[in-house]
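Final report, results section. Input specification for complex C-07:
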Amino acid sequence: MKNLAYFILLITGLVACEKEINIDLNSSDTKIVIEAEINNRNQSWVKISKTLNFSESNNFPTIENAVVTIADDAGNSTQLIYTSNGYTNNGVYTSNNLAGVAGRIYTLTVLVEGKTYTAQSVMPNLVNLDTVVFIPGQFGPPTADTTFAVLPIYIDPAAFGNSYRFVQTLNGKKDPAFLIANDNINNGGINQRPIFSFEYLPERGDTLILEMQSINTAAYDYFNSLNQSAGEGPGGGATPANPVSNLQGGALGYFSAYSSQIKTYIVP
Amino acid sequence: MYQISKKWSVSGVFVYYTGNAVTFPSGKYEINGNTIYYYTERNGYRMPAYHRMDLSATYEGTRKGRFQGSWNFSLYNAYGRQNAYIINFEDDPNDPNRTRAVQTSLFRWVPSVTYNFSF
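Structure output:
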């Protein structure tokens, strides 16, 4: 009987393996990548970089000499200036004179390497984040190791078409995941869906800085198609495709005008 | 199937499939600190070919009236090839400066023993 047990163990040890392989991937022409955001708290930044071939090192080149302007539909237009101390220590274009107003249409214009790329984005109204509930990830009273899911409590406005994005910073570390939601389900109701970011689950005593953004539908479509395409293997994700972008002219990336608020919580 | 003696017979199968058409990245870029892959040719690549050999041997027992038993010993994927089931593209966890392709395969050698009994 013992030999039989060993035999079965041997067989199960021969299943599912992972190994790195070499694939000859084609290269492509480099494309411009633009990440652009503007919000209602006078924060705006535009990051311009380029694509690389798959086999190259991950040193994504930043473009420093582009001409970047953001205009609104009330006649204001501001140029953003490159600074090398910006977002994530790589260069960004920014301005301290761009306080966004909900309801305005913002137009981004980027002139880089002789080509112009534009995008438009309407800044939505801010939906208030009332509070946050931490839901323990196990039955029974929480222990020191219990991880929690973060449930933002907010009331979705009655009109259809609200989209949200959450940016969380846990103990000083910013979660790079795209955590989004919209009111396709439970329109007009109190939110019941927690944020669940697998590598950034808070535990007791952690400090969570949560930014809740009201984003527009085009930005939601971008982040949603980006998330879908990044899922892995059968049963996860869709056939890989480039995300649906609101940039015109052939650049990758997005332009999002959003309203947001930031609140800090300590997990009890 | 090949009868090598009165009680023993052996057989084998060789299977070969060309890979499915798949979409692989042609480039990569960065959004919010994440490496995002850039696709140009939908279904422009092929998964690696799938092939394996199965071998088996059967031993016919002595017939006792109506009852006939036989033992079958077989080996699925006799040379243990790791046929690709999934191919993922990810940042190398040991070297964040490069991206790599990783394949997941299911079975290598799977031996089995079967007893058949007819009456």
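Residues 52 and 80 of chain B are 8 Å apart (CA to CA). DSSP finds no helices and eleven strands in chain B. This concludes the modelling results for the funded period.
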